[in-house]
Amino acid sequence: DTGVSQNPRHKITKRGQNVTFRCDPISEHNRLYWYRQTLGQGPEFLTYFQNEAQLEKSRLLSDRFSAERPKGSFSTLEIQRTEQGDSAMYLCASSLLAASSYEQYFGPGTRLTVT
Amino acid sequence: GQNIDQPTEMTATEGAIVQINCTYQTSGFNGLFWYQQHAGEAPTFLSYNVLDGLEEKGRFSSFLSRSKGYSYLLLKELQMKDSASYLCAVRDRGYQKVTFGTGTKLQVIP
What we know:
The structure holds two protein chains of two kinds. By secondary structure, chain A is mainly beta. Chain A has strands at residues 5-7, 10-13, 19-24, 31-37, 44-50, 53-57, 65-68, 75-79, 88-95, 105-106, 110-114. In chain A, 0% of the residues lie in helices and 49% in strands. In chain A, strands 2, 4, 5, 6, 9, 10 and 11 form a seven-stranded mixed β-sheet that branches. Chain A is globular. By secondary structure, chain B is mainly β. Chain B has no helices and eleven strands. The radius of gyration of chain B is 13 Å and the shape is globular.
């Protein structure tokens, strides 16, 4: 396992369509995070899982966004009825539940363009 | 919540030293990260400070003062490949949520 992987790397969709992204974390990592990043900004926290439990969700996340991690391994992020403002890079990161392991390892991201 | 401030852009010369500052105001604090992000790529971890003082790791050092809500990243012997954005991020007390600043875009010139 060489790192966090995300699919697809790029997604172009029309406004109003639903999209789903997948994240495969580093195999032994039990924490998984989703972020959104727009040009010139830092990553913005969306949600966080510990194993299969979604423990925190940003107040900025509308009801159109939903994330799952059904077996505590891979995760999916779905955006329903996409809007042009959803265009961004969606980053996934994982980390290990251990006192000294605070580092989050990021995947390459999925770039979403809503036309 | 968290409020993180860092300069938007900096320029430095190859071989020189540059210091990137970060100030934060938080409702809870459990550590501060620095990440490097090259254009079009994912962030990569540089350092994590939870106690006051200087942490040195090769050409990169990071300093934290919790009482002042202040950190800096020091890059020595700058190389062209150091041209990137440098993200300061704060970890909430008791939570795993990490809040990132907007990043400082560093340009290294010959």
